[in-house]
Amino acid sequence: MSSETENPPKHIAIIMDGNGRWAKSRNLPRWKGHEAGAESVREVIDACIEANVQYLTLYAFSTENWNRPKPEVTALMKLLEKFLVSHTSDLQKNNVKLQAIGRLKDLTQGPMNALSKTISETKNNTKLNLILALSYGSREEIVDAVNNIIKLTKEGNLDNTELTTSSFEKHLYTSNIPDPDLLIRTSGEMRISNFLLWQISYSEIFISEKLWPDFNKNDLFEAIDSYNKRDRRYGEV
Ligand code: FPP
After folding, report:
1. 168 CB neighbour count, 10 Å cutoff
2. Residue 188 has pLDDT above 50, yes or no
3. Which domain covers residue 193, as residue numbers?
4. Number of structural domains, the chain?
5. What value does the mean pLDDT take over residues 104-118?
6. pLDDT tens-place string over residues 68-96
7. C-beta separation of 127 from 94 below 8 A
8. Is residue 54 assigned to a domain?
9. Which residue of 66, 145, 148, 165 has the fewest C-beta atoms within 10 A of its own C-beta?
10. Is 15 near ligand 1, meaning CB less than 6 Å away?
C-alpha cells in the first residue's frame, strides 16, 4: 500500500484552473479545454477512490462564470449535462455519491435535470462523496445562510440565542460535509476565487503548476504526499 492510501486527507477540494490556457496553447477553442478538463475530472475521481479519500469537492462553475461569453457558458452547461448522463453508471458502479452545492436554481433545465437524476440515483452510495460546486460563490453562500437565518427567525422556527460558529455553519450549503483538509489549485495561480472561504480556514493549500487538463492521478498523489508532510496545528503550538 502506498503512502497516499495509508493516510489520505478525508476531504480534498480542487479549484480546476487552466482549461482556457491549455486550449489556447494548442490553437483550440476554449470549450476544447473544458472538454479535456472533464477527462481530468474522471481521472481524479478514480484516484480519490484508490487513495481512500472520502470527500472530493470540485469547483466546476462559479457565480462569476455566468459573465463569460454566452457560447462558453452554453458549452460548459452542455458538458456538465453530458458528463452526468455518460458517467452516472460509472459513479454507481464505483459506489460514488454525487452532491452539489451552489445556487443550483440558476442552472439551465438540461444540466439541472441530469444533476437531480444522478444525485437521486447515487444517494445510497458510500465510498466517495463527490460534491460539484455549481453556480457557486462563497460570499453568496454566506449571504444565503444569513438570509435563511433571518427567515427562520421571523417564522419563529429559530430561537433568538446568539449564533456560534457551529450553529452558523449549519446554514451553509456544506452543513453535512466536513471542512476540506487539502485545497488544490492548478495552473500556478495563488488565488482562492470566492471558493469555500469559511470552510478552508484550516485547510492545507497545494498549488500545482499543471494546467487542469494535464493534471493526472500522479499529480493528485503528489499533492497528498505533500499534505502528509505538513504539520497541522490549527493555531495551536
Ligand atoms: C477554469 O479554467 C475552469 C472552469 C471555469 C470550468 C471547470 C470545468 C471543467 C473542468 C470541465 C467540466 C466539469 C465537470 C464536472 C464535468 P479557465 O477556463 O478559467 O482557464 P484559464 O484561466 O486558462 O482561462
Report:
1. 14
2. yes
3. 11-137+179-228
4. 1
5. 97
6. 999 999 999 999 999 999 999 999 999 99
7. yes
8. yes
9. 165
10. no
Q: Is the CB of 37 under 6 A from ligand 1?
A: yes
Is the CB–ligand 1 distance for residue 83 below 6 Å? yes
Compute, in angstroms, the gap from residue 24 CA to the centroid of ligand 1.
Answer: 13
Residues 6+ apart with CB under 8 A from 170: none
| CA 29/CA 22 separation, integer angstroms | 10
Q: Which of 14, 15, 17, 209 to mutate to test the pocket of ligand 1 (most atoms within 8 A of CB)?
A: 17
Position of cell 472561504? Answer: 197
Residue ranges of E strands in 108-202: 128-136, 182-185
Any atom of ligand 1 within 6 Å of the Cβ of 180: no
Of 168 and 231, the structure prediction assigns the larger pLDDT to: 168
Q: Is 18 in the pocket of ligand 1 (CB under 6 A)?
A: yes
Query: Would you say residue 209 lies in a domain?
Result: yes
To the query of whether residue 19 is one of the catalytic residues in this protein, the response is: no
pLDDT for 232: 81
60 in any annotated domain: yes
Q: What are the pLDDT digits (tens) for 189-237?
A: 999 999 999 999 999 999 999 999 999 999 999 999 999 999 888 888 7
Confidence of residue 160 (pLDDT cuts 50, 70, 90): confident
**For residue 168, is pLDDT > 60?**
yes
Give residue 212 CA to ligand 1 midpoint distance, Å: 8
Q: Is 7 designated active site?
A: no
CA distance 167 to 179: 15
The set of cell numbers assigned to 139 is 460570499
Domain harbouring 133, CATH code: 3.40.1180.10
